């Protein structure tokens, strides 16, 4: 299989790239070359937003599968349709499980769950991209497949505040400082390790049965947010000194104090339960099963951060935000 990843060096796509190479994929990355190359990948250095540069870099190549990891708006889809229509057997768009109906009507999410997110613009843009791809498939036969990752981690700390590419929440846990969990911490959530995601995703690539279809690929393990934070603290060798604060209060405080908005990520996603029915991906990719428990995966992630001190970015502004949020909430 000859495949092109637009992007390809991110949190989800890096393990997938390595897994694809291990399984004999002739893999190319198209990106600006700002991150270290992955062994075995052929790198094409170009800015996907520079049409002439990309056309020249691709040199009319043909692909079995093209995956865009960094498409966010319908304009990105229109650009890609022009670039790859007739040049690939399959175009895979990376959407988001946050596009699923918020607030949910049913506690189990399937691929037929309606797409609607009135709170988060990011999710609405992903929905608009999906709508356009469905139109292109129906009217022109553009060979699209849609994949909706949920909370997938490998090189990020997958918590709501003080994590992701930051190490601040781990720093607080190791110092015994209080950490904030949205709501009462009892809502249910799904964490998926990127290596598990990769096994399901690779089975969709260059799979003619997947064309025209949409999928999510997640773990079947369901955890409360309290348990997620406890597992992170245990893996970090710290303490989960949890303070529960309503999601709306957190979002209002962030907006009032000019902290990067968390309204979309909380009220438009993490404050709701997310439990997924993975029957569809298992039908299309026989044998797929997520096997990495969160307690194991997050320990590996924290070890990855600890291995290189420069990765452990602790932000004073986040410390100040959390301390101020906790003090303000307690003083009410």
How would the blueprint of this fold be written?
Blueprint: E1 2-6, H1 13-22, E2 26-31, E3 42-45, H2 51-58, E4 65-68, H3 74-84, E5 91-94, E6 108-109, H4 121-140, E7 144-148, E8 151-153, H5 168-175, E9 179-182, E10 188-189, E11 191-193, H6 194-204, E12 214-216, E13 223-224, H7 225-236, E14 242-245, H8 247-256, H9 263-270, E15 275-276, H10 279-284, H11 294-307, H12 316-330
Parallel strand pairs: 1-2, 1-4, 2-3, 4-5, 5-7, 6-15, 7-12, 8-11, 9-14
Antiparallel strand pairs: 10-13
Could you explain the architecture of this structure?
With 332 residues, this protein is α/β, with parallel strands linked by helices. The chain folds into two domains: 2-151 and 192-216, Rossmann fold (3-Layer(aba) Sandwich); 156-190 and 220-274 and 293-330, UDP-galactose 4-epimerase, domain 1, CATH 3.90.25. It contains twelve helices and 15 strands. The protein has helices spanning 13-22, 51-58, 74-84, 121-140, 168-175, 194-204, 225-236, 247-256, 263-270, 279-284, 294-307, 316-330; strands spanning 2-6, 26-31, 42-45, 65-68, 91-94, 108-109, 144-148, 151-153, 179-182, 188-189, 191-193, 214-216, 223-224, 242-245, 275-276. The strands form five sheets. It has a seven-stranded parallel beta sheet, sandwiched between helices. Strands 6-15 form a two-stranded parallel ribbon. Strands 8-11 form a two-stranded parallel ribbon. α1 (13-22) links the parallel β1 (2-6) and β2 (26-31). The radius of gyration is 20 Å and the shape is globular. The relative contact order is 0.14.
């Amino acid at each position: 299989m000859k495949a092109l990843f637009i992007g390809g060096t991110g949190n989800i796509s890096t393990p997938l790239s390595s897994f694809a190479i291990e399984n004999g994929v002739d893999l190319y990355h198209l990106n600006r070359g700002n991150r270290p190359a992955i062994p075995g990948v052929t790198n094409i250095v170009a800015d996907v937003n520079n049409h002439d540069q990309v056309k020249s870099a691709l040199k009319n190549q043909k692909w079995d599968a093209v995956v865009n990891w960094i498409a966010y708006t319908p304009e990105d889809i229109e650009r890609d349709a022009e670039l790859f229509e007739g040049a690939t057997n399959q175009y895979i768009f990376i959407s988001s499980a946050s596009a699923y109906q918020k607030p949910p009507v049913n506690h189990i999410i399937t691929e037929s769950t309606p797409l609607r997110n009135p709170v988060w613009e990011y999710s609405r843009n992903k929905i608009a991209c999906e709508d356009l791809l469905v139109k292109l498939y129906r009217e022109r036969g553009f060979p699209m497949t849609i994949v909706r990752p949920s909370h997938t981690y490998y090189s990020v700390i997958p918590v709501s505040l003080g994590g992701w590419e930051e190490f601040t929440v781990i720093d607080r846990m190791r110092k015994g400082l209080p950490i904030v969990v949205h709501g009462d911490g009892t809502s249910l959530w799904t964490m998926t390790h990127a290596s598990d995601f990769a096994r399901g995703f690779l089975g969709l690539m260059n799979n003619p049965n997947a064309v025209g279809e949409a999928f999510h690929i997640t773990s079947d393990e369901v955890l409360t947010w309290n348990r997620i934070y406890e597992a992170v603290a245990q893996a970090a060798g710290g303490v989960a000194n949890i303070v529960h604060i309503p999601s709306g209060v957190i979002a209002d405080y962030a907006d009032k104090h000019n902290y990067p908005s968390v309204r979309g990520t909380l009220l438009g996603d993490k404050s709701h339960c997310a439990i997924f029915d993975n029957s569809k991906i298992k039908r299309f990719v026989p044998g797929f099963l997520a096997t990495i428990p969160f307690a194991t995966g997050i320990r590996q992630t924290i070890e990855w951060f600890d291995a290189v001190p420069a990765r452990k970015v602790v932000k004073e502004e986040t410390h100040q935000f959390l301390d101020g949020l906790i003090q303000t909430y307690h003083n009410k």
